[in-house]
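In this supplementary section we document a worked example of the pipeline. Step one takes a protein sequence of length 276 as its only input; no multiple sequence alignment statistics are reported here. Step two produces a three-dimensional model, which step three serialises into structure tokens for compact storage. The input and output of this example are shown verbatim.
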Amino acid sequence: MAGNEAPLAENREFVWHDADFARIKALIYKKAGISLHDGKHAMVYSRVSRRLRDTGHGSFKSYLDWLEQHDGPEWQAFINTLTTNLTAFFREQHHFVVLDELLRAERHKAWRIWCSAASTGEEPYSIAMTATEALGSSGSFELINSDIDTQVLATAERGVYKTEGVKGLSPERIQRYFMRGKDSNAGLMRVKPELRRSMSFQPVNLIRELPFREPFDVVFCRNVMIYFDAATQREVLERIHRVMKPGGKLFVGHAENFSDARHLFVLKGKTVYERV
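The serialised model returned by step three reads:
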């Protein structure tokens, strides 16, 4: 293959060069902190080629040149295209057991919780269900939910899911927290307003300064750091540390380990850290 001028594969809709991947890799790192390794060529080609079709560009170079010359909504679409959103209700169940115990220990406290990677909403609503059950009618909580991907965040805020998507929940929880769709909405479930009243949604980019004034008691930042390199991880952990109360709990993904940041967080359980 002759440098950057030879395409990486035959029979593609668009010609694809090493240089295209390198540019996309640099741009998504700059804008979102996402670190793409070289094994992601096929994924990046597949996802970004959708943006070429939607914007009418005939090559990656043309699209990327245009993108870099404009400071408009296409940047958000570009970021949305390259984010990965894998989620489910009560995923990594042990975290919700810990959260339940934590909240029950101080039921009369007004809790502030941040779900920093809300995705399509299954995690935020799992947190809200846990908090509602743990605190009862006498407790109160504020749950702020964010994501860098505005498309999935809009889905989260709508709170509408296919019936098969909630099958992992108990019949009692489905009855308590969801409304079944009828007629044209048959096969869909909508989260009840009572569960949503303590929740808000807003786009947040973790590699920028965080927009919060009041500190949090609990932060969920699960399966996010795996997409960052070590330097970006440290910066994001420092930002999260600044918006948490001393002793606050940070819930992270099963593959994430922050032993190099003991001055910020100490391990207090299985992928649960305490803010120093």
